[in-house]
Write a structure and sequence with these properties.
Layout lengths: L1 E7 L13 H6 L4 E2 L1 H7 L5 H12 L2 E8 L9 H17 L5 E6 L11 H13 L5 E5 L7 H6 L2 E4 L8 H18 L3 E7 L15 H12 L4 E7 L13 E7 L2 H17 L11 H11 L4 E5 L14 H9 L4 E7 L1 H10 L4 E6 L11 E11 L2 E3 L9 E3 L3 E6 L2 E6 L9 H5 L9 E4 L6 H4 L5 E5 L28
Parallel strand pairs: 1-3, 1-4, 4-5, 5-6, 10-18, 10-19, 11-17, 11-18
Antiparallel strand pairs: 2-3, 7-9, 8-9, 12-13, 13-16, 14-15, 16-17
Helix pairs in contact: 3-7, 4-5
């Protein structure tokens, strides 16, 4: 059994000023080809890592083609998108006779002139391999799933955890399903139910109410005739027709059963639509609540400037609130500000200097915070992830600095990444676990490495390109009415 694999994965914000360039595709884990894909991701908690595990367990040959996954950012220029897709298609064609395709995709990719990146990719692969070669794809939980995606793939399998700590497990599941198709004659049929809803921030799968949604999914997956099922909470920062939550169910050659179960779960979710929404205080309000409760350490998660959602990472609302409150034993992870890092590098460790921090990418990100700081540490940004997210992989934040203003510590970085764990902070001499107040530029993935020891967590709202201070995001191209944007 010979299986081709590859990854073109990008979460695309149509509202961010952060451009996607060729450098974007080379920065994170690299723009990889062939054997180097297997070398980098073997034993890693990623979908490709799961594909490799499945190949080794089932004894099939895995033929790698291309790996392309930049940080979330704006739409990919068409020339870059076409080049990457051509690389994938050439790799598949060069493999000769194949028995299947395993793809790591995101589910919310947008390129210039292409609203449905994954539908386009899957369609091109299908045209190349023909109707009889099975294609199985692994999607992010924040996918905007289109009908074309479902039509072009034999099976799509989404992640079931948020934070997404099951990436390798879902990749392994994809490999298992592909083996069943090839060796056992499984004939998968997939149905999509697009829910008229934008999922709010109540989607952490370890906690209710999201825990109950995953349990409901598992109840349906356990029924006779069901191969697998997935919930996509959507990626809400893309102004495209397929933006919105969905459910997709795969059955054993039974279209009516797949449709019935997808509709059942989708309607169950929509009936509880208010449960998935979450009111968020400002950082200032959350600080006051935390001080009244007295449960520490407390973490403030700035979802709106989450670089993992495509934001620039230099909004200043959270930092300014820390400064205004005069907090002690406090830190902010991370502010993306290469200019401030350069000033720190020039001054050197131990130096004091006046610094304008953040607020440089867009006026919507807030004004820079003017601070008299001490440079505590400098680095080139290299580290290894602690896990469970991305366990086994190396990261690079670029030139970085640890600065201190009074009792407030800030980590400045040059490359955009959210804090999945505390590993990078410790390379700069800061252990967030010793802090009382911790601000993170993240929506939920930080929980994988922080929640176990946090006393309290607040998801806060601060002005940014994804949360304009004087109005809502301007959507113009949505394909249907969506709750809570519309009354339903």
């Amino acid at each position: 059994m010979r299986v081709v694999t590859g990854a073109i994965s990008h979460e695309t914000s149509t509202f961010t000023p952060v451009l996607t360039t060729w450098d974007s595709y080379h920065e994170r884990f690299g723009y990889l080809h062939g054997q180097e894909i297997l070398d980098v991701f073997r034993h890693a908690n990623t979908p490709i890592g799961g594909f490799i595990e499945g190949a080794e367990a089932h004894g099939f040959e895995l033929i790698p083609t291309v790996y392309a996954e930049p940080q979330p950012s704006g739409p990919t220029p068409r020339e870059i998108f076409d080049t990457i897709l051509d690389d994938l298609l050439r790799g598949i064609a060069a493999a000769g006779r194949i028995d299947g395709v395993l793809l790591e995709l995101h589910g919310s990719m947008v390129a210039e002139g292409i609203d449905d990146g994954e539908g386009h990719i899957l369609g091109a692969v299908r045209e190349l391999v023909g109707p009889r070669v099975p294609i199985v794809g692994q999607l992010d939980i924040h996918a905007n799933v289109s009908r074309r995606m479902v039509e072009m793939a034999d099976a799509l399998i989404g992640r079931e955890t948020y934070p997404e700590i099951d990436m390798a497990a879902r990749g392994r599941e994809c490999a298992d399903v592909l083996v069943r198709i090839h060796r056992d004659g499984l004939r998968p049929i997939m149905a999509l139910h697009q829910i008229p809803m934008v999922w709010g921030m109540n989607q952490v799968t370890a906690h209710p109410p999201m825990r109950e949604a995953i349990a409901e999914l598992h109840r349906i997956e356990a029924r006779p005739g069901v191969v697998c099922g997935s919930i996509a909470t959507c990626y809400p920062l893309a102004d495209v027709p397929d933006m919105g939550a969905s459910v997709y169910i795969v059955t054993e050659n039974d279209r009516s059963l797949a449709r019935a179960y997808a509709d059942e779960l989708g309607e169950w979710i929509f009936a509880r639509r208010a449960d998935w929404q979450l009111d968020r205080p400002s950082t200032r309000e959350a600080i006051e609540q935390a001080q009244r409760a007295g449960v520490f350490p407390v973490i403030f998660a700035d979802r709106d400037d989450n670089t993992g959602g495509g934001s620039p990472g230099d909004s200043t609302g959270m930092l300014q609130s820390f400064l205004d409150a005069g907090l002690e034993d406090a830190c902010v992870l991370y502010i993306v500000d290469p200019e401030a890092v350069a000033h720190c590098q020039k001054a050197g460790v131990g130096a004091t200097l006046d610094l304008e921090v953040g607020g440089k990418s867009s006026p919507l990100q807030g004004a820079p915070c003017r601070m008299g700081v001490e440079v505590k540490a400098l680095s080139e940004g290299h580290f290894s992830y602690d896990g469970p997210m991305y366990a086994g992989l190396k990261g690079n934040m670029g030139a970085s600095a640890h600065i201190q203003y009074g009792e407030i510590h800030v980590l400045l970085v040059s490359r955009r990444e959210q804090p999945f764990d505390t590993a990078f902070a410790r390379t700069l001499g800061l252990d967030p676990r010793t802090m009382k107040y911790i601000g993170v530029k993240s929506a939920a993935h930080f929980r994988a490495g922080f929640e176990a020891w946090a006393g309290a967590i607040f998801v806060v709202a601060e002005p940014s390109v994804h949360n304009p201070a004087h109005g809502k995001l301007a959507f113009h191209r949505l394909g249907r009415k969506l709750y809570p944007f519309d009354e339903m």
